[in-house]
Amino acid sequence: MTIQEFKSKLDIPLIVSPMFLVSSVQLITESCKQGIAAVYPSLNARTTDDFEKTIFEINQGLEKAKEHTNKVPAPFGVNIIVNKNNQRTQADLAICKKYQVPFVVTSLGSAKEIVDEVHQYGGLVFHDVIKKRHAEKAAESGVDGIIVVCVGAGGHAGTANPFALISEIKKFYKGAIILAGSINKGNDILAAQNMGADFAYMGTRMIATDESLASKEYKQLLIESSIEDIVYTNQVTGVYANYIKKTLINNDIDFHSTNTLSAEKLSETKHKSWKNIWSAGHGVTDIHSILKVKDLIQQIKIEYKKQLIKNNEILKQLKF
Ligand SMILES: Cc1cc2nc3c(=O)[nH]c(=O)nc-3n(C[C@H](O)[C@H](O)[C@H](O)COP(=O)(O)O)c2cc1C
Fold first, then answer.
1. pLDDT tens, 61-100?
2. H-assigned helices in the chain
3. Dihedral (CA of 247, 249, 255, 261) sign
């Protein structure tokens, strides 16, 4: 598949991002049924055997949807963590190859060893970056797209401004750009395209859906939170990420500190991360309700179209 073919399979240029302990089979299949690509994190399945069952289930759900609606669902992807802490990289990749998962998103580490294997069966590879240096490495490894994770994103966000980082990466990379960080609405997707991105990547907004695996309390906290309630800290896993302040306080995390965590402290906090200490991006400010994925995507499509109409009006009023 080429990037152009991938794009032509989506109703709007949006990809639902992978979220550890949050993304469910239903979140993926419902998004794809609505014409939006979506990514399942392989580690959400407890073992590689469970992961294989999950891929089977997603394929089955999408096949059924195709029969019932006569509409071909958007492609789904799998997120594989490629650093040395993940013992399942190769085994999970083998499942992606077996089922010819349409695209693979690699995060942390290097995409190099994955690219050839996925290309061999016709799949695409997108790699997650927060810095120019990581983007250069991803470009060298031949990925089809670079996911540019900017300031205010949920999870392991970056600190870069999206305008600047996209411009920087476009100087040396000609593949697809996927922008992440507080993208919640249809008009945000269009804004991402105007900045030079080919696709938008959406995480936090999708947590507050019926289909996500997040608890009721987590979803409710997203509704109650605004930008001031999100804290960027390295005091949970040793790597900087955005979390909901209240859950840091509840778990006695000293988020004012920037010290490197001792091994002892790290083992204490790490097992609480994502499970008890909840992540979200600055985009919480735009979350006011918990919706069904179908309704949320419908709303996003309408916002996207309305913004296009608005842009057309702006164009008509131009005096030059
Ligand atoms: C709860 C949570 C879990 C996440 N887990 C993963 C993960 O397992 N793999 C990954 O590549 N990114 C993960 N991310 C990052 C997202 O895929 C994505 O980059 C980010 O959510 C986009 O920014 P946004 O949340 O502002 O939309 C996670 C984000 C959140 C909020």
1. 999 999 998 899 999 999 999 988 899 999 999 999 999 9
2. 3-8, 25-33, 48-69, 89-98, 112-120, 132-140, 162-170, 186-195, 204-207, 216-224, 245-250, 263-270, 293-317
3. negative
What number does the ligand 1 atom closest to the CA of 107 have?
11
Facing residues of 277 across strands?
A: 273
Residue-wise pLDDT for 178-221, tens only, equals 999 999 999 999 999 999 999 999 999 999 999 999 999 999 99
Q: Tell me the β-bridge partners of 38.
A: 16, 76
CATH 3.20.20.70 domain locations along the chain? 3-214
Report DSSP state, residue 192.
H
- 162-172 confidence digits (pLDDT tens): 999 999 999 99
3-state secondary structure of 30: helix
Q: Could you tell me the distance, in angstroms and rounded to a whole number, from the CA of residue 288 to the centre of ligand 1?
A: 20
168 Cα: distance to centroid of ligand 1 (angstroms): 23
Q: CATH number of the domain at 3-214, out of 3.60.20.10, 3.40.50.2000, 3.40.1780.10, 3.20.20.70? A: 3.20.20.70
What is the secondary structure of 114-159 as a DSSP string? HHHHHHHTT-EEEEEESSHHHHHHHHHTT-SEEEEE-TT-SBS---
Index of the ligand 1 atom closest to the CA of residue 283: 26
Pocket of ligand 1 (CB under 6 A): 17-20, 22, 41, 79, 107, 128, 149, 153-155, 180-183, 201-204, 279-281, 283
Q: Are 50 and 73 spatial neighbours (Cβ–Cβ below 8 Å)? A: no
Nearest CA-CA partner of 139 in 167, 175, 109: 175
Q: What's the pTM?
A: 0.97
